[in-house]
Amino acid sequence: MICLNSQGLPLLEELKNLRAETGESVIMDDKLEEMRLYHLDKVRLMKESCSEFNPEALFADGFDESIIGIDTKGRVTYSYNQIIETLIERDGMSEEEAREFFDFNIDGAYVGEYTPIYIYED
Question: pTM score, two decimals?
């Protein structure tokens, strides 16, 4: 059984690499696609749930897969670690560049009462 962890899609990339190394069949590709679609559906449902709970909730553009929930005040919560991973993998930043970009452009942006909050995980 394969489970998605808080890192989400990067885990799928690891599985693709493992499949390439071991020469697994097309069945593995089908399973990976099934997992990817499941994950994307889960992300969509999480975003919809946040919007239903608070129609005024604000989202960080391009980081839907990093949403982990909504707080009691109606602010969308994101995984800091996942955002950093996204910046590194999607945008080709080094870890230091990703952290600096996050600090100044994401965490440092206050856009009102429902500005998203970011959870740091160990």
Answer: 0.71
